[in-house]
């Protein structure tokens, strides 16, 4: 992302949302947060994405995550579009979602976060925001970013999976291997010595033998506390 790298403190801003005016850092508080953007209101892929995010909101809340979305349309458009999103979900048709949606008409937030592509514009000539995902830690630092083109819908199951990995690895000196799912074995960080590993991971350490003779592939059951 131009101007925003992993480990950077994310920009603070004030914005109008479907849940009232917010200051972003205050909205996040001491929680984990997810900010995701949409190319525009009344667009098909975005409708399915926001519907899925609304359905999964209890899973995000269970993980202590503040969710917020963004589109460059105005609040009136947002509230009318949300009725379509709720109808798509088969839910009660209201102009609200369980999380706020930012009305970024002037593109200020989009520019701060590098959400604007070099191409892809609305019929009005204004840029369409790309499908960005920003996962932010309680320290307000960027922990993960994913960028999708307008034509490709996100996997919110994958977003939940990476949140689980980020929260686990922030608490324990482990990493999650390829295709990891919650409950699978994890890998012990290379900064942890053999002696430390035995103390930190009492459920056992399994080391994979390798031709190099280097004992860096060390697995242990996922810590559950």
Which labels suit this protein?
single chain, 225 residues, alpha+beta, Glutaredoxin, Antioxidant, Horf6, Chain A, domain 2, 2 domains, 5-stranded mixed β-sheet, 4-stranded antiparallel β-sheet, 7 helices, 11 strands, elongated, Thioredoxin-like_sf
Compile the SSE list and pairings.
Blueprint: E1 14-17, E2 20-23, H1 24-28, E3 32-37, H2 44-55, H3 57-62, E4 65-71, H4 75-89, E5 101-103, H5 108-112, E6 131-136, E7 142-148, H6 156-171, E8 174-175, E9 186-188, H7 194-200, E10 206-207, E11 218-220
Parallel strand pairs: 3-4, 4-5
Antiparallel strand pairs: 1-2, 3-6, 6-7, 8-9, 9-11, 10-11
Protein name: Peroxiredoxin-6
InterPro entries: AhpC/TSA, Peroxiredoxin_AhpC-typ, Peroxiredoxin_C, PRX_1cys, Thioredoxin-like_sf, Thioredoxin_domain
Pfam families: 1-cysPrx_C, AhpC-TSA
Which descriptor suits the 3D outline?
elongated
Catalogue the unreliable spans: none
Tell me the Rg in angstroms: 20 Å
CATH topology label of the largest domain:
Glutaredoxin
Could you tell me how far the N terminus lies from the C terminus, measured between alpha carbons in angstroms? 34 Å
Number of strands: 11
Structure write-up:
The protein is of the alpha+beta class and 225 residues long. It folds into two domains: 14-153, Glutaredoxin (3-Layer(aba) Sandwich); 172-220, Antioxidant, Horf6, Chain A, domain2 (Antioxidant, Horf6, Chain A, domain 2). 29% of the residues lie in helices and 21% in strands. The chain has seven helices and eleven strands. The chain has helices at residues 24-28, 44-55, 57-62, 75-89, 108-112, 156-171, 194-200; strands at residues 14-17, 20-23, 32-37, 65-71, 101-103, 131-136, 142-148, 174-175, 186-188, 206-207, 218-220. A five-stranded mixed β-sheet has the order 5-4-3-6-7. Strands 8-9-11-10 form a four-stranded antiparallel β-sheet. The chain has a two-stranded antiparallel sheet with strand order 1-2. A hairpin with a 2-residue loop joins strand 1 and strand 2 (20-23). The two termini are 34 Å apart. The model has no long low-confidence stretch (mean pLDDT 92). Thiol-specific peroxidase that catalyzes the reduction of hydrogen peroxide and organic hydroperoxides to water and alcohols, respectively. Its EC number is 1.11.1.27, 2.3.1.23, 3.1.1.4. This is Peroxiredoxin-6.
